[in-house]
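Z., the sequence and structure:
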Amino acid sequence: MNDAPVDFTVIGGFLGSGKTSLVNRLLAASGSTRFAVLVNDFGALNIDEALIRHQDGRIMQLANGCICCSLAGGLVDTMVELMRYRHLIDHILIEASGVSYPSRIMDFARIDPDLRPGLTLVLVDAAHLQDHSTDTRLAETITAQMESADMFVLTKTDIASADMAAWSRDWVATRAPDAPIIEGRPDDASLVALITGPAPDATSAATHHHHPADHTGHHAHADPDRALHTHFVSRAMTASRPVDEDGFADFANRFSKHLLRGKGTLHFHRRSAIWQQAGRLVHLEDATLDADTASQIVMISADDLSEAAAALRALGFQDVANVPAR
């Protein structure tokens, strides 16, 4: 029996921002990850009846190993019922209602030892945010939804004007300056890959290389772990000496708005740890690592990582390509 906590992710955003479309895409691209998806309305999910293996009240088991649950009876009752299937679940994904607060849903994972608090992703409708912001009640709801977000996705940028998209980005950045903001449709493969990709393998950092940029300034290859689009860049670094833990924690907080994903193994002076980060969500978990190995990390971003790399060099890291041969 697997006693490890189950990862718990919340997708929030105001009505019409694209949450259900993203959940549908996640179910279709789940691969080997067995998601338990909690939604308010089964009918909104695009599930072929042929893929439904079994349905028992609020629980629907799919042929790909995923489970869908209705939140009609409330979160607490649904979670109690869902945990009867715990041995079949790798990752719990909750689609928050359009007027609910994702932070309150994530609180459920913070107090349950069987759950591991994960990413709070908030979608923002770039085509309608400016209109919504002029309504005091709507603006208050949207702002409250943003408070605990680890990362934001601007959706509907394909139908919003360039000025409207830029205004929406600035509006979000002003209210949540430490969280990354990416643009994309809910069915964007790169966005789906950020959520559905395998848990970062901290021991494989040295195999990821800082790929040369193409003529657009973007890397020619995405992180193979997540099949990310080429506009997401990656950079691998390593440190042969123990890393200052306070200094690294400060780095993780200072560059949170640039880090879509961070992963790696770290040797601090007093302990070793596995680092996993997604925007403002930072995990530094104790680990038993080979003392003879170097600290190894990988960063994934939509932005240039030169400043982040410089901050890490000040802590003793080097780019993988610059590590002297032993």
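Confidence is low (pLDDT under 50) at residues 198-227. The two ends are 42 Å apart (CA to CA).

Let me know what you think.
H.
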